Amino acid sequence: MTAGSALLANLPVAGFVHAVADDTLKIALVGCGGRGAGAADQALSTSGPVRLVAVADVVEEGARVALRNLKEKHGDKADVPLDQQFIGFDGYKKAIGLADVVILATPPGFRAMMFEEAVRQGKHVFAEKPVCVDAAGFHRFLAAAEEAKKKNLKVGIGLQRYHSSGYIENIKRLRDGDIGQIVAMRACWTGGPPWVHEREVLEQQCGRKLTELEYQVRNWVHFVWLSGDHIVEQHVHNLDVINWVKGGPPVKARGIGGRDPGKGKGYGEIFNHHSVEFTYADGSVCQSVCHQQAGCWAEVSEFAVGTKGRSQIDRHWISGPKAWRYREQGTKINPYQQEHDDLFDAIRNNKPYNEAEFGATSSFTAVLGRMATYSGKEITWDQAAASKVETMVKRIDELPYQEAVDLNPPTMPDAEGQYKVAVPGDTFVI
Ligand SMILES: NC(=O)c1ccc[n+]([C@@H]2O[C@H](COP(=O)([O-])OP(=O)(O)OC[C@H]3O[C@@H](n4cnc5c(N)ncnc54)[C@H](O)[C@@H]3O)[C@@H](O)[C@H]2O)c1
Q1: What pTM value is reported for the model?
Q2: How far apart are CA 99 and CA 122, in angstroms?
């Protein structure tokens, strides 16, 4: 048996169909923005033969720029023919069809729908975080994750801290009890305001009017059905670390949040600050803080206090009788690259690999936090998970682009172009 045929013998069925001629893993990129292009670069930088065979986006220019940059670095490996570049809300289905491994890097609202399709078509997946923005997406993603297990598909999620040796070692020590029983934690993502794409500027760039749906998709971070709010879109990373330490999600949450007055129309409907207390089953609490405010303190961190010590998890140290500090050995590892190296290694060598479940649970932890701050109520995990609210626009991926963009998103502007913002105490979120 040659090295090549030994490799083929190890490939799971889904990969095998596409790899009979050689062992090249074909990649499709869905969502060709900053992170999608980065993830494709990392996938193309894994060892072993790989090739980008298809891309999908809703903005032609986005796909073109990503492909130009990828081709500059990876040459023929990123040479995607025009008829394998799909533009439109239904394009992802066709791109997925041509690949062995699919990268999903659109705004998160689309993730569950696209993951479900990739699994239905029997493809391995790298899905960026967060993977859901509401309860419907959470359940949809989890169900597809179960299906992926049955089909022996490998699933990576863009929660790259799981591929950072400092985090891995630190959290192992915490779970082994090195600071005793953990009683309190803090998770933090505070920083300045995100990018804003004002409608007028976008329309000038496009040389035409945009429909409301088109506008929101291009300014996606400011709309809940697309981003989940920044507590979901960004802060999921830190909440995920806390869940990792605790071995599961919280049982309830309560919090406060809001947004500064005078925010322009471009800021859509999301809050710009949230503070949530998450309670875990053992009674321990995590204080979570996130804001996107100019001129304020900025920090991205996770911290834990135990009965025998403390740990600054993001800086990888522990104090107390079992004091420890992480020291990088050899070459510095880039977790963004490592997560792709690990996924592709698992695919090639048929190793167990499925990050979907904790990806979904952590994403939904952040959704629970948003429900708590928007409503101003204490909300349990079970209440949140039983929510019937589904924010994804129905039939968006069944219609040709020109018709899909005429669908109404779940939130529409008033006569002044302003969007309704949640009012704690008043807003019904479940
Ligand atoms: N893991 C990390 O550290 C990390 C870092 C940055 C972003 N992200 C995540 O990556 C995802 C993408 O973020 P980004 O910064 O690249 O955003 P972006 O706006 O740069 O890119 C999103 C792309 O998706 C396209 N798109 C929108 N709807 C689509 C659809 N229905 N079908 C196909 N394409 C569609 C857009 O046109 C755009 O090109 C987000 O979920 C974000 O949270 C993760």
Answers
A1: 0.95
A2: 10
What is the rounded average pLDDT for all residues in the chain?
94
* Share above pLDDT 90 across residues of the chain, in percent, rounded to a whole number: 91
- Strands of the sheet with 379-380, listed across from one edge: 324-325, 317-319, 309-312, 299-306, 182-191, 285-292, 273-279, 252-258, 379-380
Structure tokens at 200: 């007028």
Residue ranges covered by each domain of the chain: 3-161+347-354, 165-334+359-404
CA of 87 to the centre of ligand 1 (A): 15
Nearest residue (CA) to ligand 1, atom 21: 33
Q: How many CA atoms lie within 13 A of 402 on its CB side?
A: 0
Question: How far apart (Å, rounded) are the C-alpha atoms in residues 210 and 13?
Answer: 43
Pocket test for ligand 1, best of 128, 213, 232 (most atoms within 8 A of CB): 128
Given this model, what pLDDT does residue 429 score? Answer: 72
pLDDT tens by residue, 310-348 = 999 999 999 999 999 999 887 888 999 999 999 999 999
Give per-residue pLDDT as tens, 211-237.
999 999 999 999 999 999 999 999 999
Q: Is 108 in the pocket of ligand 1 (CB under 6 A)?
A: yes
Half-sphere exposure of 202 (CA within 13 A, CB side): 19
End-to-end CA distance of the chain: 58
- Residue 321: count of CB within 10 angstroms of its CB: 10
- Which residues are registered as beta bridge partners of 292? 191
- pLDDT band of 15, cuts 50, 70, 90: very low
Q: Does domain 3-161+347-354 have CATH number 3.40.50.720?
A: yes
pLDDT band at residue 5, thresholds of 50, 70 and 90?
Answer: very low
Report the relative pairing of strands 50-57 and 25-30 from DSSP bridges. parallel
**CA 107 / ligand 1 centre spacing (Å):** 5
Identify the pLDDT of residue 21.
Answer: 54
Q: Which residues, in sequence order, are CB contacts of 176 under 8 Å at separation 6+? A: none
- Report the Cα 31 to chain-centroid distance in Å: 12
Please give the structure tokens belonging to residue 369. Answer: 């936090």
Confidence of residue 12 (pLDDT cuts 50, 70, 90): very low
The residue nearest atom 5 of ligand 1, judged by CA position, is: 35
341 close to 154: Cβ distance less than 8 angstroms = no
- Name the token pair of 209: 């009017």
Query: CATH for 165-334+359-404?
Result: 3.30.360.10
Q: Strand, coil or helix: what is 102?
A: strand
